[in-house]
Amino acid sequence: MSGYLGSYATLGILLVVGVVLFGAAFAGNRLLRPHRPDPGKLTTYESGVDPVGGDWAQAEIRYYVFAYLYVLFAVESVFLFPWALVFARPGFGTTTLVEMAVFVAVLLLGLLYAWRKGVLRWT
Amino acid sequence: MHPVIPYVVAALLFGVGVYGVLVRRNAVLLLMSIELMLNAVNLMFVTADTSIVGVPRSGQVFTLFVIVLAAAEVGVGLAVILRFFRLRASVETDGVGAATETDAPREADAPRAAVRPDPDGEAR
Amino acid sequence: MNPVLAADITLPHINYGAIAPILILLGMACVGVLAEAFLPRTLRYPVQVLVSLVAQVAGLATIIGLALSNYAKKPTLTAGDALAVDGPGLFLQGAVLVLGIVATLLIAERSVERGGAFVAQAAVTAGSEADAEQARRQPSQTEIFPLSLFALGGMMLFVSANDLLTMFVALEVFSLPLYLMCALARRRRLLSQEAAVKYFLLGAFSSAFFVYGIAMLYGFAGSVKFHDIAVAAISSGKSDLLMFIGLAMLAIGLLFKAAAVPFHVWTPDVYQGAPTPVTALMASCTKVAAFGGILRIFYVAFLDSRWDWRPVIGVIAVLTMVIGAILAVTQTDIKRLLAYSSIANAGYVLTGVLAMQKDGISSSLFYLVTYGFTVLAAFGLVTLVRDQDGEATHLSRWAGLGRKAPVLAGVFTFLMLSFAGIPLTSGFTGKFAVFSAALGGGQTTLVIFGVLSSVLLAFPYLRVVVLMYLQEPAADAPTVAVPGALTSAALAIGAIVTLLLGVWPSVLLDVANSAAQFVG
Asked: Which intervals hold domain NADH:quinone oxidoreductase/Mrp antiporter transmembrane (chain C) (predicted)?
């Protein structure tokens, strides 16, 4: 296990140990616990409360807009990280700062548009 | 040594994505398959980056661009599919083009399926 | 600090003057978004039209200024070599904008149909009570103007991109607004939405191939700059296989946008379903942008490996011309007919591209402009033939139009003759330019297929003409709307340019010739 695949060995060993540990815990549990089947034990666990309603729940489609706005901003912020690494270097300074300001301003424009169109209103 | 495993995984992911696009008929699942293809590309960029002596870490930066564009694509795509669902009450792509292939597309305006009342159809 | 990271990263110099046209377009698109957000509804339409036209005219003026100063002679790379400002780039940017202005005139037309061709809320079922209500309360859609500005800005970025990543970003910037614009038709809304879904899913699929090709070429060359790829292609010791896989994937993405067979299946449905002004924009500007990208990739990055890939693309060009022409013959809908004709025309441009020498570039550039103007005018005329359901696009409904509307039928006949490549029209000079360039490049087979297919393609065009003049109009024949000032202007520009470039092609061909030098 040397060479190229060797670097994957640690990962493989970790996986194997995880599986073994998991299996051992459940096997030990099985050996030690009493065995008393009960239909109540098969119902869905909802924090100790009796389960209510069916299992098929659909989210309101209007959440889509919020989710989407969040995703866009979260994803766009990814550009901030490489920028943050270089902007303090000599020769970058003001120019990079202004460029990032323009970038964020364009993002804000999108948010502004969503706000004016009433997408952010929670009705 | 050449990083074979990530390349193979990336190719497999891309293949799974292509297979999904070709086989699936649900527009949302098609979108997910396309995302798989883009993620295969990300994996390739990051892997290729390790073995390249050039502009440092350029492959990783490319990945960021692909991620962002994928998010934009999903946003637009979901919007288009959502509007389509409201007219058709279905996101199956099998029926897409059925209206175009008839010689008399004048009936195409008739709603083909009862459209559910739209909870937030209010104008924005 | 990480030693690799500490290696020299320098701030790329950006020549803002050289990329000003793109910045103007995208900046004004942001202004348009602001106007859409803050202006009262009644003011939006005039302001948006104004912003849109001012942006494009200003961009065009800047491009002309750049071309007259020595950017065409002394091309530059800027923004860390990501953007090339050179002859073909400026020419293509100008072409996108000129065609974009005419398309904007068509988009802005509101007198033919009350409120314009676009619906304010695309999700409302057409003909329902809610639809009547929304038509009363908010008659128009003005978001289309910023969307089209973003699309045009993206196309300009696309044709001047000098590395693959910039190209991919630009591809998405111009594709995403187009997907949305397809879905906005006021009439035949379901068809329009289906077109948008189809265009989006296939477009996203093809751009995934495109970006996979980028990854392959990055692995091959260690860089995504066209120049570095060209250098890596001629250096020994690297596996060509990776390069050719990458090139094939890139070509899939680009040929999809250019609507070449076998990546054309979306074209008829999308062209038919999209609102006709948007179809006009796609048929003219998107084609220019797509072929701009194809030209730059083939002539800058893969020039030295052309002997290996030229036969493959040649086969695609032949397929595109022949299949486009054959399928055009069978069409019964005018928009679908024009869509198949645009597929065949993509084949003609590809023939010019494959000449792989200087007049290949200039003839392709010339052809793109001539075709763009003619197709804009043709789709503009399609918007005018209407019945109570909106546009009457079925060919049988066009019977006898020559008697009811002699002017419209006359102009349409002229445009059809231009498509068919009859002398004294720009269609003839354009075809002549690309075919003679291809002959000069040794592509005789392509030219033979090109001439044969254009003979075949003349048949459906002339059938429309015969239909308009020699058949009796039906009792419920569609009426011909009186075009408003904007549509009239667009039609006049399109028809006059078609005639002008037919009788005096050198006026544009000389510009194209002097522009035909890519920066390496």
From this structure: 161-456
